[in-house]
Structures are given as C-alpha cells and as structure tokens.
C-alpha cells in the first residue's frame, strides 16, 4: 500500500520530468538504429558471417548495455539523495511511510520508467527486425526483452541504492558515475590487474587467463547480461553449445542477484539510520 | 494519556549539542506553543518526534507510541507541516494532496481540503510555480488529511501574509475543537500568544519554562511598563519610586522614566513623580509582550527592544501582533 503510493508518486514525478519520454526516444533510436547497423555488417566487414535474428540480439545486447547503464545513472542518482537534499523528504516521511517503503517504492517507480521506455524502444526494434531479418521470432524477442528488463532492473536498483547511501545529490552523482566507469569501462582492465598481481606481477604465460579470472571478468553486470543473451539465443535455437560455467545462464542470474541485493542492503542500511 | 511526552531527550550533531535533557509533556486536546529563538532546537525536537533524526539519549513518545520504534503508526495519526521542506515542483497541488490521501489510506475529497486552505483555484497548477504562502497552505492541506489526532506544525506562518496567518490560526482552533492536539513551534511570539493554551520556551537546547501565557506573565511579576516623559528628571526619583508596591525595574533614558509595574500601581507612580518635582508631559503604558517574557527567560539581548520586535514583524508580515496601547 505504502510502497505503491510512493512508487506511483515517483513514477508521476519522473514522467513529468520528461525522463520517460527522453529514455523512450533514446531506446527507439538505439534499437532501430542498432538493427539497421547490424544488417549493414556484411557489407562493412565481409568476415562477419551471415546476419540472423540471433546474431542481432547479441549485437543489440552489447550496445544496449552501455545505454541502459548510463540511463540508469541519469534516471536514478537523485531518486533518494535528491529528496534528502532538497527537503521534499520531509513531506514524504511526514506521511506514514517507512524508509524501507521509500526505498522499495523508489526502486519500483524508477524501474517502471525504465521498463516502459525499454518496452517502447524494443517493440519498435522488433518491428524493424521483422521487416529486415527473415526468421525473426516473437519467442526469442520476448526472451531478449525479458533479459534486458532484468538487466535494467539490476542497474536501477544499484543506482537507487547508491542514492540511498548519501544525503547529497552531488555525491550520489559522483558515486554513480564512478560505478559506471568501473563496471562499464574499466572492469576488464581491473580484472587483468588483479590477475597480473596474483601471478606475481607478470602477465599469465601465453596470455591464457585462469578460469577464476574469467569468472571474475564475467562478474560485471554487463558481462552477465551478454552471457545471458548469448545463452538464451543458443537455447531457443535448440543448440546446447558447451560454454564455460561463467557464460551459463545460472551464473549470470547469480551475478544479477548479487548486484541487485548487496548494494541495496548497504544503501538501504545507511538510509535507515541516517539523520535527514 | 499525553499526546507528546519527552523524557531526557538529547541530541548531539558532531560536537554540537542541539538538545540537552529535554522533558516535556503535551496533553491531549491542547494547543501547545513551542517557542524559542532560531537555533534553539525546536526543529530538532520535531524531527525526533517524526523520526527524521534519532536522539542521542532519552525517549520521545507520541500518542502513546514510541517515536522511534513505532514511527509509521505515529505518522499515520499525525498531520505534519515541516520546516525547510520542499514541494514536488513537477506535481500539481491536487497531486500532492492525493499523494497524502493515498499514503494515509484516507477517504477524503481533495477539493474540500484545498478549498479549506484557500488554494482550490490553483489545484491544477504545478506546486513548483506556487508562491511560498501557497506552498505553506498546500502542505497544511496535506497535514489535515485523515483528520489526524495530532498536528505538528513547524513555524506554520512562515511566508504567510497577515490574512494567511489569521486563517492558519482559525484552522488550528477548528482542529482543536474537533479534538485534535496541536503542537506548533514559532519564533514569533504573537503567533503563539494568539492561540496557545500553554507554551514551552526552549533556549540553547533546554526547556526554560512551561506555562500558560497568563502564568508566564504573573511569574515575571509585572503586567506591563509605564513610560513617563517629564520636563526634567528629578535626581531622587528612583529612591522615590522604589519603595512603592508593585514597582519593578526602573530605567531612565533622557527625559523618559520607564517603570515595570502592575496596573494597580500606575496612579501611585505618577503621583510620586509629581511629588518629586517633575512636570509630566506625556505617558504611555504597554502590556508585557511575550517578547519581554521571552527575553526575560532566555536572556537573549540580541532580539531585545522595540526595533527588534518591529523587524521580526515586518519580516513575517504579521500585522496581527499585539500592539502597544497608547493612552
């Protein structure tokens, strides 16, 4: 009841701020443009192989991840810290909501915006894919949509958690962008650094990374999303190719679960005891 | 049962002691004024009642419920007009009140509430475009949702014009008549004087006194001040006045003699001054204002004197303050 009231209010506020419209347009451009770009691949790179709907999802997944991650930061960094900073939290918590209600309501409200924008963007993408690619199936598309929404939910939860951990919107922005840089831009470099140190300050012989390093590399949400989409595409095509465990669906789901819960517990934990 | 009960309430922010050992009891059904200069700890106390901040020591009970462990239940039965809040700029007035109704699970008519606080005409406008006074009215409407048992109003007349301040007081009285307890803070004494059954004065994080307005006046031992302008102040005027009954502090400024006194002694004082050889040109009397009481209790000289009082009043546009009676 209380969570829904907060979520509804938060969704209305985000919608009014045009962030839903902006995200919807972004995802339409991203999906439709990405699909068109994918159909051009054989002309640009003769070695890229034939274009297939399955290949499209993997390709789209790789570009979507970056867009979704940065969108989640922009959409959610102020969700809780912004209210603490401005003082609107006094209206919010002057009403009978617990801080847990507020935290969960914010996750639901902002995820709702993300979901609707993704739904619009990917339905447009599906329309274009139907026109440009033979054999595009609704089932595979639905699978791709579902995984993309889960990825969006994970990122929104992550950024709302960061927002809950501080009462300063600018600090939330700094933390959110910092996290984006670490997870999206520097993750493989950092993982290589860890492997380098663990190997006695030397690159692993022959360039072959031990599997724990690969698993660590797969622990970034984007890597898990990529693995999940690839796995799903293979599964729907009826193939069961042998992939390392860190490229399997269960591993990806664990990675999602970890990124959606541990930061949430930390962020909410700080919010629960904060003086506002 | 007390509506609000504070026991040994203390709060420290870093190395700043905001509250130290506050004990206070507010009875059900009363209008209680919580007075103190800015920075005295009024908002901190209210923030603890609403669980926005947690006390360092002591306890706060609201409507018989622990303000920390049972805060949601407290806020279900309380209407809040906080200090230093911010409205949702992108939501309309109507949406704000609807949010309060949703949040409390109340079944109330938005338009009745908005018309009660006088902003029905602006229901569909974004609250971000409201004036300060309209926002204050809007948040009051949110506070009234669900006919709360307790209203907590932090500086409720901030940003209101005199008419708005009067309407605010009328609503406060009407809510009390309905059976609600009203707890409101102010640094403007006249606001409190006009509606409160009892007041507490808070200064530097400590309760200085809790009493009725009449009780405060008599506790100070004088009911007012007599200002007498004479042609020349006789040298022995102080020794002539001091023995009289009901004479308090005596001040001489130029040709004006100011005497704190009870009403009954005024004639005797004038007579004594005349007998001392002075000719009286003019005299005025003023009732002890809460400002005087406040200064007497908090010893806050920075806000003392008529000019400071006027500055307060101008700042808050409050024409309703008790004015000096000139005879």
Give your account of this protein's structure.
The complex is a heterodimer of chains A (276) and B (327). Chain A is mainly alpha-helical and 276 residues long. Chain A is built from twelve helices and no strands. The two termini of chain A are 23 Å apart. Chain B starts with a strand and ends in an 11-residue tail after the last helix. Helices cover 35% and strands 28% of the residues of chain B. Chain B has two domains: 2-217 and 301-325, P-loop containing nucleotide triphosphate hydrolases (Rossmann fold), CATH 3.40.50.300; 223-286, Alpha-Beta Plaits, CATH 3.30.70.100. In chain B, strand 7, helix 6 (162-178) and strand 8 form a beta-alpha-beta unit. Chain B has helices at residues 42-49, 71-76, 93-104, 110-116, 132-144, 162-178, 189-195, 213-220, 237-241, 266-275, 290-298, 306-316; strands at 2-13, 16-27, 31-35, 57-62, 65-66, 78-81, 150-154, 181-186, 198-203, 206-211, 224-230, 247-253, 256-261, 280-287. A six-stranded mixed β-sheet of chain B has the order 6-7-8-3-9-10, sandwiched between helices. Mean pLDDT of chain B is 85; it is low at 302-327. With 327 residues, chain B is of the alpha/beta class.
Mean pLDDT of chain A: 92
Mean pLDDT of chain B: 85
Strand content of chain B: 25-35%
Radius of gyration of chain A: 20 Å
Radius of gyration of chain B: 23 Å
Any idea of the CATH topology of the largest domain in chain B? Rossmann fold
Distance between the termini of chain A: 23 Å
- Please give the share of residues in helix of chain B: 25-40%
Our count of domains of chain B comes out at: 2
> How do the helices and strands follow one another from N- to C-terminus of chain B?
EEEHEEHEHHHEHEHEEHEHEEHEHH
Sequence of secondary-structure elements of chain A: HHHHHHHHHHHH
Annotation, overall tally of beta strands of chain A: 0
Question: How would you sum up the global shape of chain B?
Answer: elongated
pLDDT below 50 for ≥5 consecutive residues: which ranges of chain A? none
Strand count of chain B: 14
Spans of at least 5 consecutive residues with low confidence of chain B = 302-327
- Structural class by helix and strand composition of chain B: alpha/beta
Oligomeric form? heterodimer
User: With helices defined by DSSP (H or I, 4 residues minimum), what is the helix count of chain A?
Assistant: 12
- Portion in beta strands of chain A: under 5%
* Helicity level of chain A: over 70%
């Amino acid at each position: 009841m209380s969570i829904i009231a907060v979520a509804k209010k938060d969704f209305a506020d985000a919608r009014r701020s045009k962030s839903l419209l902006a995200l919807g347009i972004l995802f339409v451009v991203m999906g439709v443009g990405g699909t068109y770009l994918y159909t051009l691949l054989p002309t640009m790179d003769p070695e890229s192989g034939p274009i297939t709907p399955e290949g499209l999802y993997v390709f789209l997944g790789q570009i979507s991840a970056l867009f979704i991650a940065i969108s989640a930061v922009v959409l959610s960094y102020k969700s809780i810290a912004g209210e603490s900073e401005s003082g609107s939290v006094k209206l919010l918590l002057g009403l009978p909501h617990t801080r847990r209600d507020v935290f969960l309501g914010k996750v639901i409200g902002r995820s709702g915006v993300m979901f609707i924008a993704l739904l619009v963007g990917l339905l447009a993408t599906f329309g274009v894919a139907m026109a440009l690619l033979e054999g595009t199936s609704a089932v595979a598309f639905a699978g791709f949509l579902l995984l993309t929404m889960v990825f969006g939910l994970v990122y929104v939860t992550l950024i709302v958690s960061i927002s809950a951990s501080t009462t300063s919107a600018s600090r939330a922005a700094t933390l959110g962008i910092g996290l984006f840089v670490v997870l999206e831009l520097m993750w493989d470099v950092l993982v290589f650094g860890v492997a380098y140190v663990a190997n006695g300050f030397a690159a692993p012989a022959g360039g072959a990374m031990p599997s724990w390093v690969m698993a660590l590399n797969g622990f970034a949400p984007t890597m898990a999303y990529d693995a999940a989409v690839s796995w799903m595409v293979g599964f729907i095509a009826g193939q069961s190719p042998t992939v390392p465990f860190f490229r399997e669906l269960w591993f990806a789901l664990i990675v999602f679960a970890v990124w959606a819960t541990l930061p949430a517990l930390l962020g909410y934990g700080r919010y629960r005891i904060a003086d506002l | 049962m007390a509506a609000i009960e504070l026991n040994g309430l203390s709060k420290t922010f870093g190395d700043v002691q905001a509250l130290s050992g506050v004990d206070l009891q507010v009875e059900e059904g009363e209008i209680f004024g919580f007075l103190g200069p800015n920075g005295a700890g009024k908002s901190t106390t209210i923030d603890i009642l609403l669980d926005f901040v947690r006390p360092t020591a002591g306890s706060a009970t609201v409507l018989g419920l622990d303000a920390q462990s049972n805060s949601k239940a407290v806020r279900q039965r309380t209407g809040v007009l906080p200090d230093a809040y911010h409205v949702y700029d992108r939501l309309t007035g109507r949406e704000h009140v609807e949010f309060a109704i949703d949040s409390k699970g109340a079944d109330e008519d938005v338009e009745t509430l908005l018309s009660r606080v006088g902003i029905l005409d602006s229901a569909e406008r974004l609250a971000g475009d409201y004036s300060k006074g309209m926002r204050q009215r809007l948040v009051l409407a949110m506070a009234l949702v669900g006919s709360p048992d307790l209203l907590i109003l932090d500086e409720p007349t901030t940003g209101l014009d005199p008419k708005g301040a009067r309407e605010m007081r009328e609503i406060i009285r009407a809510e009390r008549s309905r059976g609600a307890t009203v707890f409101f803070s102010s640094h403007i004494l006249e606001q409190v004087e006009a509606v409160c059954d009892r007041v507490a004065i808070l200064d530097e994080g400590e309760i200085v006194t809790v009493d009725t307005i009449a009780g405060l006046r008599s506790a100070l031992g004088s009911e007012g001040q007599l200002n007498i302008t004479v042609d020349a102040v006789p040298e022995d005027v102080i020794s002539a006045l001091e023995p009289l009954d009901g004479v308090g502090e005596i001040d001489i400024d130029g040709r004006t003699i100011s005497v704190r006194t009870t009403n009954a002694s005024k004639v005797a004082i004038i007579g004594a001054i005349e007998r001392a050889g002075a000719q009286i040109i003019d005299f005025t009397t003023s009732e002890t204002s809460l400002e005087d009481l406040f200064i007497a209790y908090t010893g806050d000289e920075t806000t003392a004197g008529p000019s400071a009082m006027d500055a307060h009043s101008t700042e808050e546009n409050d024409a309703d303050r008790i004015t000096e009676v000139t005879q």
